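Hi F.,

I've been meaning to write this up properly since the lab meeting, where we talked about keeping a consistent format for the predictions we share between groups. The idea is simple: the sequence comes first, exactly as it goes in, then the structure tokens exactly as they come out, then a line or two of notes. No screenshots and no reformatting. I'm using this chain as the first example so we have something concrete to point to.
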Amino acid sequence: MGMFVISKRYNGNYQFVFTSRKGKPVFTSISCKQKSDCEMIIHAIREHIDVFTITRKCTVSGKFFFRLSKGGLVLATSRKYSTELRLSKGIDEIMRSVSEAETLDFSVDELIFPEEEVAAL
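Output, unedited:
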């Protein structure tokens, strides 16, 4: 099962990454000004992946990737794959697991451990 991971960029914008069940990034979203925009895109992808367009591309150096778009607007770009077969497997994994993927939010600027616990270490 894959996972959506929301994070905050250094410029204050938000993004999400869809990772495989092994924790490897599959695709990264566009930059969003609001976290709610990320959540809305994730919800749309999770509920209606079949209405999104997956466009396969190739770099000049021969690496393969895809773009996830809707209505002509590119919403996410995949990592680079060395072969077309691996690209196809990446797309298959999305189609199989995106509807059951959970969402983790790492965009909050709070400490995971309280100061007392950090000082005790």
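Notes:
DSSP finds three helices and seven strands in the chain.
The chain has a mean pLDDT of 88.

If this format works for you, I'll send the rest the same way.

G.
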